[in-house]
Amino acid sequence: MQITLEGKVAIVTGVSGDGQVGQAVAKALAANGAKLAICSRTKDKVEARAKELRESGADVLSVAGSLTDESQVKSLIDDTTAKFGRIDILVNLAGGLTRYKAAVEFTLEDWRAEVDNNLLTAFLTSRAAFPHLQAAADGVIINFARAGQAQANMIAYNCAKAGVEALTRSLALEGRDLGIRVNAIAPGLVDTASNIAAMKPKDMKKWAKREDIAETVVFLCSPAAEGITGQTIPVTGWGI
Question: Residue 143 maps to which CATH number?
Fold first, then answer.
């Protein structure tokens, strides 16, 4: 079955650095025909990604903003609908691991920042987009959880990503009678530029590829995945 997203409008959050998952996801959605609104906290970075996409022929809106702020989430939704008139797909990629320390060393600020960046952002954007996804009749939300079990020194991140899975199931239940499918992708260790720079691996054969994650997003957004909702899909490469 050939996948096409022609006529669809997708919001992708967390589209920032070169060589990151957000960049790969945005490229894959655009390559399959979707119009895009991409978002990041850093204006220069998100506009750089938008420029790349436009050069490949994509119709793209770039929005800079913090998605832990309700007013800036509203601006993202309003700007997208003002330009494109609809929202069909929301990909909640904003977040990531930023606090790595023992639980007893976590401050309240550390906890709130990590949970807000990974869980609150997904909730606020999903809540704001829900009426538009319902109007689209076949709306899709893709969240990002994590593969495998909890790891030491990542307590807030572990809890936030567990919350993302619960959020996914909860939204899927609410969306099933509204024509909204909600799923999550749980990546393993991914070959992002930042991971490679930080870990300097000698062998990445077992790492998940950015492009594999992006193609999974495309599949879950397509009619081919019409019967899939409320699920968390691991994409771990060969590192199972």
Answer: 3.40.50.720
